[in-house]
């Protein structure tokens, strides 16, 4: 069996905006993508980020035999000691993954040695413009001023013969940096609190390595926390800051079995998951022999700049007016949340196949069964039963914030053009009192999810940019009970083929 078998995304691995600090350990918020060569019903899973739960006072009802749903509900409601501040649910064409991180667990890691060559800078293969490029105001949010990483595992491919994956990818990377030349630059401070890209052509970091281990030693399935993260994506000293450092870091590690691992670290200020996939897709196409990428990059960050600062942001005003924002509700909410030591956490995984998702949808009216996506279904289900588990004051306002990507939500001149690779995620917010969320049918929560998602269009994005400017990049505060979900499945890292499948 050959080709790509897994992709991991480690997101939210924060490095302070003003630089410094070691590359975060693997235990810090890794997200996972499970890709091909697993059983067909488990072909690919992204994840959603979420928050903790404690005691379920009302259990969801599932048909007999649906042990996955019952086990997932039990993990949310009755952990051994307490549950961590993140629960993740993954969606795929065939399956869904629920991950709950509990206390007092550990994960064994394979023992192996990695020999690295010194890190080098890969520069564009041809001359590129020297200029200062402005970022959008969506790119200026404080929570994207972090490093994120993607790790992909590939099997040996006999058809590639003796080709060296490190050399193939390095050469393709240099070619891709010609049209994507801003990635070869450095972030600088600009206009006070903002950042801009100084297109210097200095290049991106590239590390070539060999490991005395085969893919089979990493276990099946590959699941985080991946204890060997530091071995597969080397934190080159001085490279972790957000400003004045390389914007990308690649490490290609050849394995003893003939397979290899590609790890990429990105300065999130430059792009989101879709943007990174677009760039890596260009590298992959060039690695397979293409003369140029099929999708040419589009900068146009001015599309998502804030407007007149005297204007309000009407789409987002109600967030500031939500009951409990900045009041003693924060104290009440925080009293039911658990401050946990991130280093003492482990993961529990539950795969949701078609039968399990059908079991949840069976609780919905027929028309909603057809209209609700997998994300809608899982998001509404988790929001409702998490709220029941927290047992808040019935009048407490519960917020569900979802990262919704604006790509494809408008077409033509007013939309985000094909090739745009900046950050395009918006925070769509569903709001309900705890009483309504807990006592009304599941369809109530799912309809709120759909309604919040459907509001995300270009006007919503511009309103969000207005708010970011007014807040000078700071993310507006939410109550301690806010539930945050991110669906990463649309990034499609599983489509990346560098020639090995």
TrEMBL record:
GO terms for molecular function: acyltransferase activity, transferring groups other than amino-acyl groups. It comes from the Eukaryota. It holds the Pfam family Transferase. Residues 307-333 are annotated as: Disordered. Keywords: Transferase. The keyword Membrane does not apply. The keyword Nucleotide-binding does not apply. Residues 315-331 have a biased composition (Basic and acidic residues). InterPro entries: CAT-like_dom_sf (IPR023213), Plant_acyltransferase (IPR050898). Belongs to the plant acyltransferase family. This is Benzyl alcohol O-benzoyltransferase. It comes from Panicum virgatum (Blackwell switchgrass).
């Amino acid at each position: 069996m050959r080709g790509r078998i897994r992709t991991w995304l480690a997101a939210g691995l924060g490095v302070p905006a003003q630089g410094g600090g070691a590359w975060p350990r693997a235990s810090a918020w890794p997200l996972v993508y499970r890709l091909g060569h697993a059983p067909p019903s488990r072909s690919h899973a992204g994840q959603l980020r979420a928050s903790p739960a404690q005691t379920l006072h009302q259990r969801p009802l599932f048909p007999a035999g649906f042990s996955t749903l019952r086990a997932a509900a039990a993990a949310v409601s009755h952990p051994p000691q307490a549950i961590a501040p993140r629960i993740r649910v993954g969606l795929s064409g065939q399956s869904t993954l629920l991950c709950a991180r509990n206390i007092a667990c550990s994960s064994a890691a394979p023992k192996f040695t990695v020999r690295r060559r010194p890190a080098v800078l890969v520069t564009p293969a041809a001359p590129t413009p020297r200029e200062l490029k402005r970022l959008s105001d969506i790119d200026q949010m404080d929570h994207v001023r972090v490093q994120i990483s993607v790790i992909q595992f590939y099997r040996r491919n006999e058809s590639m013969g003796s080709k060296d994956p490190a050399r193939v990818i390095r050469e393709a990377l240099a070619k891709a940096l010609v049209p994507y030349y801003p990635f070869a630059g450095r972030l600088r401070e600009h206009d006070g609190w903002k950042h801009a890209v100084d297109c210097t052509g200095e290049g991106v970091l590239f590390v070539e390595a060999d490991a005395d281990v085969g893919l089979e030693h990493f276990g099946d399935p590959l699941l985080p926390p991946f204890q060997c993260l530091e071995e597969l994506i080397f934190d080159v000293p001085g490279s972790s800051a957000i400003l004045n450092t390389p914007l990308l870091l690649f490490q290609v590690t050849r394995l003893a079995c003939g397979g290899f691992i590609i790890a990429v670290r990105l300065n999130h200020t430059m792009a989101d998951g879709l943007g990174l996939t677009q760039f890596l897709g260009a590298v992959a196409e060039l690695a397979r022999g293409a003369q140029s990428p099929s999708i040419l990059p589009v900068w146009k960050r001015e599309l998502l700049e804030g407007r007149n600062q005297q204007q309000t942001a009407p789409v987002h005003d109600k967030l500031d007016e939500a009951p409990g924002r900045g009041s003693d509700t924060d104290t009440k909410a925080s009293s039911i949340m658990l401050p946990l030591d991130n280093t003492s956490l482990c993961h529990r995984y539950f795969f949701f196949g078609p039968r399990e998702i059908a079991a949840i949808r069976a609780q919905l009216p027929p028309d909603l069964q057809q209209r609700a996506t997998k994300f809608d279904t899982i998001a509404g289900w988790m929001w409702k039963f998490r709220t029941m588990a927290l047992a808040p004051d019935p009048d407490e306002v519960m917020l569900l914030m979802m990262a919704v990507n604006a790509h494809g939500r408008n077409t033509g001149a007013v939309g985000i053009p094909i090739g745009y690779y900046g950050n395009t995620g918006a925070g769509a917010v569903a709001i309900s009192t705890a009483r309504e969320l807990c006592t009304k049918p599941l369809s109530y929560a799912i309809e709120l999810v759909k309604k919040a998602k459907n509001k995300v269009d270009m006007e919503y994005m511009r309103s969000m940019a207005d708010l970011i400017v007014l807040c000078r990049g700071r993310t507006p505060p939410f109550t301690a009970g806010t539930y945050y979900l991110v669906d990463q499945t649309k990034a499609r890292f599983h489509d990346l083929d560098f020639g090995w499948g």
